[in-house]
Amino acid sequence: MKKEDKSLIIEKIKEAIQQYPAFYLVETTGLDAAKTSDLRRACFKADVKLMVVKNTLLHKALESLEGDYSGLYPALKGSTSLMLTQVGNAPAKLLKDFVKKGDKLPALKAAYVEECVYFGPEQIDVLASIKSKNELIADVVALLQSPAKNVVSALQSGATKLHGILETLSKKEA
């Protein structure tokens, strides 16, 4: 491969990584055509971009980016696929579903989520349990609404009781 071609590919990898806040390094060697197609289809449905990359080119792309990606370098061995996502836990859930079906592959090598490096396939459960930004916002909104609903409910029930008492007193005097 020519040096110009390599530099173009490195730039494409850099641009892709910069567009997504989280990415996973995955081992996909050994997947047959049908399983690879299933993986690509599942990635498309989950809004995860899947790219097969050369380790040396990915290493150079990561070195040229701002941030510390050195924890990912030991995972750059063998065949590597890059899963890019806006939602940090989406690829982990996707990979977990594949493992539930009895497949050993695709296997997690490493992940970069929320500016943290996760290394090794045993981290898949941790990554799957990370809540996305939208899930966290929904939790906070639910927590904030709960006390307000209780106050409104208490005020409404109190007003109903007070109205009932006043009505009863007005009927007694008449």
What does this structure look like?
This protein is of the alpha+beta class. The protein folds into 2 domains: 3-130, Ribosomal protein L10, N-terminal RNA-binding domain (Alpha-Beta Plaits); 132-174. It contains 6 helices and 5 strands; from the N terminus they run αβαβαβαββαα. It has helices at 3-19, 33-45, 55-64, 90-100, 124-129, 133-173; strands at residues 22-27, 48-53, 80-85, 107-113, 116-119. The chain has a 5-stranded antiparallel sheet with strand order 2-3-1-4-5, sandwiched between helices.
Offer a few descriptive terms.
174 residues, alpha+beta, Alpha-Beta Plaits, 5-stranded antiparallel beta sheet, elongated
Rounded mean pLDDT is 88
Low-pLDDT residue intervals, each spanning 5 or more residues: none
CATH class of the largest domain, named Alpha Beta
Distance between the termini: 101 Å
| Number of alpha- plus pi-helical segments | 6
Name the shape in a single word.
elongated
Strand order of the largest sheet: 2-3-1-4-5
* CATH topology description of the largest domain: Alpha-Beta Plaits
Supply the number of structural domains.
2
Helix content: 55-70%
Condensed summary:
The protein is an alpha+beta fold. The chain has helices at 3-19, 33-45, 55-64, 90-100, 124-129, 133-173; strands at 22-27, 48-53, 80-85, 107-113, 116-119. It is built from six helices and five strands.
